Amino acid sequence: MSFRRNGNLSSTLLLIAANVLIPVAIVIFATGFFPYKPLLPGLAQYEPLDGYGEPPEAPFDKLVFMVVDALRSDFVYTTNSGFKFTQSLIRHGAAIPFTAHATSPTVTMPRLKAITTGSVPSFLDVVLNIDEGDESSSLASQDTWLAQMKAKDTGKLVMYGDDTWLKLFPGTFDRADGTTSFFVADFTEVDHNVTRNIPGELRNDDWNTMILHYLGLDHIGHKGGPRSPHMVPKQREMDGIVSQIYKAIETQDHLKSTLFVLCGDHGMNDAGNHGASSPGETSPALLFISPKLKGLQKNQDSPLPDAEDFQFYSTVEQSDLAPTLAALLGFPIPKNNLGVLIADFLSIWPKKADQAYLLHENARQIQTVISAASGTKTFDGALPAESCASPTSDYEQLACEWQGPSNNLMSARVGDDMDSQWALPVVTWLRKAQELMSGMASNYDMSRLILGQITALLAVIFSLSAAIKTVSPTRSLTPLLVISIAYSIMMFASSYVEEEQHFWYLATSTWFGYLTLRGFKRANTTFPAHLLLTAFPVLASLRLLRAWNQTGQKHAGTPDIVKLFIEPHPHFLWLLVGLTYFWTHRQLVYSFHGRIPVPINYPVMTGLVLAAFTFKAAFTLEDAPELVVEFVKSSLLDFTRGASLIARARAVFVGLGLVAMAAMGFILWEMRGAGGNRKRSRRKKGPAEAITTLQHLYTILALTQSRTANIPVFLIFNLLYWFLSSEIDAPDGTGLSTVELGISSLLLQYASFFAMGGSNAISSVDLSNAYNGVSNFNVVLVGILTYVGNWAGPVWWAFGTVVLLGEIWRRDQRQKRLGSGNNGKRGSDEKEEEAEAKQMLEGGQISPFKTYVAVTTLFTAFSVAAVMAACTILRTHLFVWTVFSPKYLYCVAWSLVQHLVINVGLSGLLFWLGSF
Amino acid sequence: MPLVDPVTMSSSAIVKGAVAQSTSTTKSTPGSQATESSTTTAGSSSSLATLRPVQIKQTPAAQTVRHALPAALTALYLLRFDALVTNPVPVMLNALPVVAAFQMTYALLCLPAAGEPASKSNRKPRPGEKKKGGDIGSSTIITALLASVLTSIVTPFLYFAMVLFGAPFLTHGSHTFLCAAHLALLTLFPLFYVHGVDSAAWAAVGGFRAPLDETFGGLVGGIVGAWLGAVPIPLDWDREWQRWPVTILCGAYGGYLLGRVLGGTLFWGKKF
């Protein structure tokens, strides 16, 4: 018997080991997969270049940098654009147009980093983009053209628009007015707040850099896509601002040497979203505007016909902005720049020596970056000829190829007579260096990738053996293994990663089809038609969930229930939303019934639910006003008029916290009383019911953090939950087993995530509820709110599972008591008897919670190992940064937060509280 | 029924024969017997525990048809595949009567009709028996017609089941419905022909307790095949055949044929 006890202990130890190894593997792998790029510290200075004189004189001294968020190239350049004035500038040569290639991830913060530093931001910046308060994403300490303009000390820096700039450059701007983009329904106010500052600033002559960042066009894209009826009017509005600034430059003396740059930070796809790397998303417009540029004689055709690939005029890299601005405005190129001076502007400098200087400075600066990255001093002296015959690394190859361009520069410097194409080899070399340094493939730390992989495989082995030891009979693990293995295989195909929801939908429907129809096994003679009647609502619920939000990549934006039935019928939506809140209210009141007197219970819970509901209504009025019906506006919002959204959200959170504390108080109080006879009647149910209170309180939190159109989904969840609960006490002792519940929970957690609009794309992270009740940015709070906002469904199912696990536990306790009463009848199975004897010796059976953790750990270990293997093997795949890396980040969220924190930590705590 | 309980609970301990015995003792009460139209006419072995695998008739015609028809179905499918990909609805519609004729021939020639003694070859013909195996009498034709009526009744339900498992609901209605009709004709028609509306037999089929044979094997294969047919749809290969419902139909046919052949040969009589 002591051996058996050891068996239980060893399975617990294996389980703990697996759960320790999972985060360890994730961290090791991440450090190898997202390598930390060495950043050169400090501000670049002009260093004397051998043989050159002073740096060439810059044609401009002031900069107006106007960013229009999501300004895709065709919005400016094509026939149906609203930028008529800008197009006339292109025709007259006063505007030099480009298509600036933006690398993935095409979201604002990494793009601004690329634009200002000239470097290619690491993929981790995406995470930091969400986690906007992170200090390490701040560029205040890095070398950027803003820092250089400030160091020039020829004027102040002013900024109006998206407050991402303020977060990236704290303390840099002398005058600033940041706008936030919480509500994408705001098309006008957010831009008006920028525009109203322009006339005054154009009259001021105390600044040398003015940054304007307009968000309205991006909002229109998110809301209505690139063909929204608001799009062209917004373009005309932006065109008007271009005209306003250009005319000021033309007419006002203190602005005559002003360079005006108009650009988008990224583009958008046909659905109006961005984040990935489709041509639409990676092709923003970029224009350099000034009357002085007419001298370049670059008069180009405009407008142009539509282009499928969004490439208009010549295409440059977004990072090329940094060295080009450095040359045009006369400051040293930022230290970590990988951009290449745009050669079209070279002819501004009439002397070849000046042109050579600028190119040479660019090359030398990139060589410094290469030397830092490769850890060698490749460019210090001439390389021995033999090592150039067979270069050992890409870096060496590059160093060898430097000879030719370097000779060209030398000749240009001394004024040799050369053909007009002399600069071409230099630019080609620079592009090559840029490509090499931007491609991160060479930066993987293979040993760490493999170490992480091995650790994850160990976690798989541990969790597998723990599950086999914990679960009996072992064959009940088969469905879980099939799911885990199929999922693991799927991770290697990019389209299955993009369309992961189909896997969960099909698996969930099949599994619930099995659960509802397994009663056929009990039915011996008669055809159990009633089972079909149970199966129908359950499967229909799952079908509704599947169709609620269209997610994934391929068919993103195609009709779904939200678009077809919810948005056109707001009355119907609010009926369902009201029903959801009403139902939660009912359950909340019921779970407190008998604990607190009705006169207190009822008003308190009503107040809490009403606060949550009015917050949701008020939030929707800001976020999606077209969804709010008159009834909700007049009846519910009017009597709480004046309360700000932050105050409303805080009221909800504080109320939830207080009621949760009360519920916890009841649990602890009843736990204490559980020992005495006095509370005997309540002993079985007391804390268990308080746990359901916490479950309902979480439901309110989940509703608060979910999009309004997703709220009715919780009614469907309730129906499925009710089915699972009824299956626990199915007749004939064939009730739901813990493993079956674990599998159901796993499937529903994933299916609900996708059903509520989640996907494996970074762009699908929903930030609309991330700032509820938060006025000052707080990483922890915003992080939690973001997580609950996106994983509302999965966390709901984790709560639900704990309550159901408690029910299973009590059912088994009951059956054990019954079984020990008439052991003779039940003891037909020798094994079972033995197991029972063992359990009695140990004073308890295997806790259902342990079995549940074994189930979720097994799947998590499999998924982590599979995603790592896919990322390692496909690290040179075209989609590694757009499909597999985002999947890795999602996998991290699922395994660290959803598995470890929610399914193990939170559920464990709740199960423990409820088991007294 | 108190006796059911020990049976279900002790399935692993008692050998199968014992289960069968205890079940048949439960079932041999006259009341329950009378309400069922059972697969066999023999009294003591009428209950579910002895639901026998369907045996293909031993006549030369039956044996020829048994092997020829799967080949013919495969050939038909391969011949029409390109047309199916470009124009699924008319192709499925036109193929329906052909497949129906195939299945009808198969049922009439090879399968024992419901109500007919199931496994004559195993036992001596009883004295009261009217027909010899292999004859296509009027009663078997009526059984076949009834089976086809039942198949068409069940097709809408199959359609809804497919929708519940993710088939498009608002679009592609005729695609899915025809696909369901094909699936029903392949997998359910033979079962209706051999079991009729015998609820015990259908409960056994639904509970995956029926022994494998050509009919049940075909059902399992067809449904699993159709289910697996959904797998390649999300792949980004952008092929024409990835369109709804080509892969589903392909899986259904492949699975059905495989299940039918394997169920009739290698796994005949085995249970899950």
Describe the protein in words:
- The complex is a heterodimer of chains A (916) and B (272).
- By secondary structure, chain A is mainly α.
- Chain A has 2 domains: 1-19 and 445-672 and 684-816 and 842-914, no CATH class; 65-130 and 144-348, Alkaline Phosphatase, subunit A (3-Layer(aba) Sandwich), CATH 3.40.720.10.
- Chain A is globular and about 105 Å long.
- Chain A starts with a helix and ends with a helix.
- Residues 130-134, 675-684, 824-831 and 833-844 of chain A have low confidence and may be disordered.
- With 272 residues, chain B is an all-alpha fold.
- Chain B has a domain at 60-115 and 136-264.
- Chain B starts with a helix and ends in an 8-residue tail after the last helix.
- Chain A: Pathway: Glycolipid biosynthesis; glycosylphosphatidylinositol-anchor biosynthesis.
- Chain A: The chain crosses the membrane at residues 12-36, 449-468, 480-497, 527-548, 596-619, 645-669, 708-724, 736-758, 770-788, 852-875, 887-913.
- Chain A: Ethanolamine phosphate transferase involved in glycosylphosphatidylinositol-anchor biosynthesis. Transfers ethanolamine phosphate to the GPI second mannose.
